[in-house]
Amino acid sequence: MTGQNTRTGKVAVFADREAATRHLADWLLQEALAKKDGPFSIALSGGSTPQLLYSMMASEPYASRFPWARMEFFLGDDRFLAHDHEDSNSGMLQRLLFSRVPVPAENVHLIPTAGTAEDAAKEYDAELKKFYGADTLQPGKPLFDVNLLGLGSDGHTASLFPGQPVLKEHTAWVSTCVPPVAPYTRLTMTYPAIDASRHVVFLVEGASKRETVAKVRAQDPACPASAITAMGDLTWVLDRDAAPADV
Ligand code: 6PG
């Protein structure tokens, strides 16, 4: 596995949101069908950008072709909210995808909401380690086949926000973050957990993100997303508006 980063990662640019999203749906389907040894594990991002993808996956020709019984779904991050709250990523994914496809309930790992945010982070950390089958990440053994990430215009990804203590967390796989710039306490995967992915895919759309894409590809340290690496390959899936002039 090559171990790409945000600078060396491949960039795929599409005319518009629909085309970028359809490309990603096709690629995910191909990867899921090609995986023969064990479950196909995928961590999904929240926010608005990937919602078209989730709706697409729950529609034909994808809904009847994904090997749902062999897929394991996790979330890269979430707001620490009840799942029926309109801003819950877990709730959004339940509505747009998981409630509409025949994925076994035990294969859907939503972010817990019981107790404190710290309790929930510990619980989700333990759930990841149970799935992985070890408490420490082993070189060459990915935790996820695919980690789908978004990008905030301030350079955050998952809920790894600028200047937050979670950026220095290199032991826990899940931690909390209380970003001053965004609402709600968050639970987020940490760098070690995200980096333990065979494929990392940034899905980014819209002109408001173009400058940030350029900064993160140049590995600007002010952008937390700049430090993301993949065990295998990293790919930027961009619509034309989000693509910097040099790609
Ligand atoms: C979240 C996300 C976050 C998101 C970016 C981009 O919970 O909000 O996981 O990292 O990907 O904020 O959000 P948009 O796609 O809405 O621009």
Walk me through this protein's architecture:
With 247 residues, the chain is of the alpha/beta class. The chain has six helices and nine strands. The strands form two sheets. A six-stranded parallel sheet has the order 1-9-8-5-2-3. Strands 4-7-6 form a three-stranded antiparallel sheet. Helix 1 crosses helix 2. The two termini are 24 Å apart. The mean pLDDT is 97.
Enumerate the strands of the largest sheet in spatial order, edge to edge or round the barrel.
1-9-8-5-2-3
Taken from the alpha-carbon principal axes, the silhouette is: globular
Average residue-wise pLDDT: 97
Bound molecules: 6-phosphogluconic acid
What fraction of residues sit in β-strands?
15-25%
How would you sum up the major sheet?
6 strands, parallel
- Succession of helices and strands: EHEHEEHHEEEHEHE
Gap between N and C termini: 24 Å
Which SSEs are present, and which pair or pack?
Blueprint: E1 10-14, H1 17-34, E2 40-44, H2 51-57, E3 71-75, E4 77-79, H3 89-96, H4 117-132, E5 144-149, E6 174-177, E7 186-189, H5 191-195, E8 197-204, H6 210-217, E9 233-239
Parallel strand pairs: 1-9, 2-3, 2-5, 5-8, 8-9
Antiparallel strand pairs: 4-7, 6-7
The protein binds 6-phosphogluconic acid (6PG).
6-phosphogluconic acid binds at residues 45-49, 76-77, 89, 150-152, 156-158.
Short recap of the structure:
The protein is an alpha/beta fold.
Could you name the key traits of this structure?
247 residues; alpha/beta; six-stranded parallel β-sheet; three-stranded antiparallel β-sheet; 6 helices; 9 strands; 25% helix; 19% strand; binds 6-phosphogluconic acid
